[in-house]
Specification:
Blueprint (H helix, E strand, L loop, with lengths): L7 H9 L2 H4 L5 E2 L2 E2 H19 L3 H10 L5 H4 L4 H19 L4 H8 L13 H41 L2
Helix pairs in contact: 1-4, 3-4, 3-8, 4-7, 4-8, 7-8
C-alpha cells in the first residue's frame, strides 16, 4: 500500500494524543516509561520500514501499540509469563481504542516471538519485533542496568563507610 511520504509525527498523533495512551507515561518499563519505550520502538520501526519500502504506516502504528497496557492489567504476573500474556492485552486494548488492520494486529500479538508461539506473519511485524528487542536491549543496558549498578555501588560504599567506623 502506498501512502506517499507520511511523517512519523502525523502517524503517531492519532494514537499518542489519546487519554488512554497518555497513561503509558506513568508506567515503568525498562528503566523509563512504557510511553517513551513505545515511541523509541515506533521511531526505529518507522525508519527501518521506510528504508525497506514496506507498509511503514501500519508498522509504525503497530509499534506504538505493541505495549499498550498498564502494569495493573498484569497484576502479579512476572517474568516470561508476562512476556507471553501482554501482547494479548495490548492487542485487546488497541482494538478497543483504534481501528486496526490485519498487519497491525499480527505485529502486536506476535511481537514477543519466540516467547509467543507464532512468529509475525508479515515483514512489518518482523520489523516491529526486531526493533522492540533492539530498543529494549539498549534501554535495559542504558537505564535499568546503570541504575542497578549505581544502587549497588551506593550499597557497597555505605557498607564500607559503616565498616570503618
Amino acid at each position: 500500500m502506498k501512502y506517499g511520504v507520511v511523517s512519523f509525527d502525523t502517524i503517531a498523533k492519532e494514537i499518542i494524543d489519546t487519554k488512554e495512551y497518555k497513561k503509558l507515561s506513568k508506567e515503568t518499563h525498562h528503566g523509563l516509561t512504557r510511553y517513551d519505550h513505545s515511541l523509541r520502538v515506533a521511531r526505529k520501526t518507522y525508519h527501518i520500514a521506510r528504508s525497506l519500502n514496506i507498509d511503514y504506516v501500519s508498522a509504525t502504528r503497530a509499534a506504538l501499540l505493541h505495549d499498550f497496557f498498564t502494569n495493573e492489567e498484569l497484576k502479579n504476573i512476572k517474568g516470561l509469563k508476562k512476556g507471553k500474556i501482554h501482547p494479548k492485552i495490548a492487542l485487546n486494548n488497541a482494538k478497543n481504542s483504534f481501528n486496526l488492520n490485519k498487519k497491525e494486529e499480527d505485529a502486536i500479538i506476535n511481537h514477543m516471538f519466540p516467547l509467543t508461539i507464532l512468529p509475525p506473519l508479515s515483514v512489518e511485524g518482523v520489523v516491529v519485533s526486531v526493533a522492540d528487542k533492539a530498543v529494549a536491549i539498549y534501554e535495559c543496558s542504558r537505564f535499568k542496568l546503570s541504575m542497578t549498578i549505581g544502587i549497588w555501588i551506593l550499597f557497597i560504599l555505605n557498607f564500607l563507610n559503616f565498616s570503618n567506623n
